[in-house]
């Protein structure tokens, strides 16, 4: 088989921190070359266990990606170019989940890609080596899960429970939520919610909500049946079609019609769509 794409749910110990784990393998002959990846509201740990990839974005330019790296939340499109056969595992972290794994402020990694060894130590090199030694995708995912459980340690959520509540409420609402009401429900003043959310997650609650609404468009687009753009605009909480196109173009770098024509499959994997 020249192409494989599978999504796994995390084990119970990781569900508070990890949304999903995905694996993709594509032979060089099946590669589409340059793939556009767009924001989706989660942070990531990515492990390339076959050939390397090059990333290009507006902030950091073009560079060779480490074989194992952490990426924070992003609000801009990224171009990924595979230099051969693709073998990639992507761990999609809830933003607050990544905050606790790294024991540092996630805003430091916004729109950034950082070598995994700098953040998670030399164990990440050992993990990648073990992944390369097995051909079973299930064993590969099991290795990743065991690594994450070991790194988790004894995490105390007491100082983050209100932000965890706000994060989960935003995700559950697909970003269609009143931020002032959210501050009341989370037990934080609006200014405290803004400040702590930025520190622990990387964006303000309002801006994060915009990214989640953008991501919801992809879920609506993939629903069975004849879902037209007018329905999507309404259900995703946009004022009108002009507002929707402006927001989509900001995060995707192009209007929706062009994006869905050329980039949907690659974005599904790299962005968890």
Automatic annotation (TrEMBL):
InterPro entries from the UniProt entry: AraC_XylS_family_regulators, DUF6597, HTH_AraC
Source organism, top-level taxon: Bacteria
Domain HTH araC/xylS-type: 160-262
UniProt keyword Electron transport, yes or no: no
Keyword Transcription regulation among record annotations: yes
Keywords: DNA-binding, Transcription, Transcription regulation
Family annotation (PANTHER family): HTH-TYPE TRANSCRIPTIONAL ACTIVATOR RHAS-RELATED (PTHR46796)
UniProt name for this protein: AraC family transcriptional regulator
Source organism: Prolixibacter denitrificans
């Amino acid at each position: 088989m020249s192409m494989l794409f599978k999504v796994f749910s995390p084990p119970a110990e990781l569900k508070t921190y990890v949304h999903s784990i995905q694996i993709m393998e594509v032979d060089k002959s099946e590669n589409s070359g340059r793939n556009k990846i767009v924001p989706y509201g989660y942070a990531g740990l990515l492990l390339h266990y076959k050939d390397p990839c090059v990333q290009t974005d507006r902030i950091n330019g073009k560079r060779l990606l480490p074989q194992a790296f952490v990426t924070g939340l992003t609000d801009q499109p990224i171009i990924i170019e595979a230099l051969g056969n693709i073998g990639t595992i992507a761990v999609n972290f809830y933003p607050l989940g990544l905050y606790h794994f790294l024991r540092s402020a996630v805003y430091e990694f916004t729109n950034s890609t950082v070598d995994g060894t700098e953040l998670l130590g030399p164990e990440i090199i050992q993990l990648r080596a073990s992944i390369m030694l097995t051909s079973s995708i299930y064993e590969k995912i099991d290795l990743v899960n065991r690594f994450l459980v070991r790194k988790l340690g004894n995490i105390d959520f007491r100082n983050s429970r209100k932000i965890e509540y706000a994060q989960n409420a935003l995700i559950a609402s697909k970003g269609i939520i009143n931020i002032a009401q959210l501050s009341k429900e989370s037990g934080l003043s609006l200014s405290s919610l803004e400040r702590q959310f930025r520190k622990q997650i990387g964006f303000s609650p309002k801006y994060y909500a915009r990214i989640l609404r953008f991501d919801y468009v992809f879920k609506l687009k993939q629903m069975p049946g004849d879902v037209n753009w007018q329905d999507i605009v309404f259900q995703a909480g946009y004022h009108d079609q002009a507002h929707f196109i402006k927001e989509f173009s900001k995060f995707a770098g192009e209007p929706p019609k062009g994006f869905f024509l050329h980039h949907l499959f690659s974005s599904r994997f790299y962005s968890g769509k």
